[in-house]
């Protein structure tokens, strides 16, 4: 294989990996933010239920307090009833007792309904608390993985940058300019393999005559359609092309 082509293939593989590293660095804060948002949403739902529960408990305490006060009114009305000297006083006391008892009965029903809702909210609160704890565990694990991946990318990135500098220095200036120009125009992908007679960069068929030239891997041949530099991957070749290890960037775009 021509030395310049070998260098270009390696340079392209490194640039793809560096692009992937840079993309991860850009997306890393957003990924963490997304995880934090999920936790905040769960806490928000938990706090809503908690506030509702506290409100109902307060309302229940007030109704129970009112019920106690009304029970005292019934007691006093009973005393009035016992000490009534006229029929008018007796009827008035009796009417007051009946009214208070009816009100208390309604209040007792309201308290029972509140207790049922409070029990349901307490169960929901316990469930949401468990969900939050699970989310926090998941968040901790995801955050740990992201940090490790970030550190790994940083370590690899530094090594790749050093290797890239060596490769760039070994390229002829005109060829480097050609590579950079195509890379800029073609979404970061300037050097691609021909697979089954097709350019893997633009998916267009390569004319037979051009393909025969590419097969030799001895000359710098460009795709007639997208201008990317072409090569053919040879499994038994002396050069590790790294194509299987590289995630092609937007290969469907010409």
- The outline comes out as rod-shaped
State the end-to-end distance: 26 Å
Tally of DSSP helical segments:
4
Q: What is the beta-strand fraction?
A: under 5%
Low-pLDDT runs: 237-254
Major beta sheet, specifics?
4 strands, mixed
Across the major sheet, the strand order is 2-1-4-3
Please compute the radius of gyration using only Cα atoms. Answer: 39 Å
- Could you say how many structural domains there are in total? 2
Remind me, CATH topology of the largest domain? Helix Hairpins
Helix content, binned percent: over 70%
Would you state the CATH class of the largest domain? Mainly Alpha
Number of strands: 4
Computed structural class: mainly alpha
CATH architecture of the largest domain: Orthogonal Bundle
SSE pattern: HHHEEHEE
**Arithmetic mean pLDDT:** 83
Chain-wise SSE layout:
Elements: H1 3-82, H2 87-169, H3 173-185, E1 191-195, E2 198-199, H4 208-216, E3 221-222, E4 229-231
Parallel strand pairs: 1-4
Antiparallel strand pairs: 1-2, 3-4
Helix pairs in contact: 1-2
Structure description:
This protein is mainly α and 254 residues long. It has a 4-stranded mixed sheet with strand order 2-1-4-3. The chain is rod-shaped, with a radius of gyration of 39 Å. Helix content is 73%, strand content 5%. The protein folds into 2 domains: 16-169, Helix Hairpins (Orthogonal Bundle); 173-245, no CATH class. Helix 1 (3-82) packs antiparallel against helix 2. The protein has helices at residues 3-82, 87-169, 173-185, 208-216; strands at 191-195, 198-199, 221-222, 229-231.
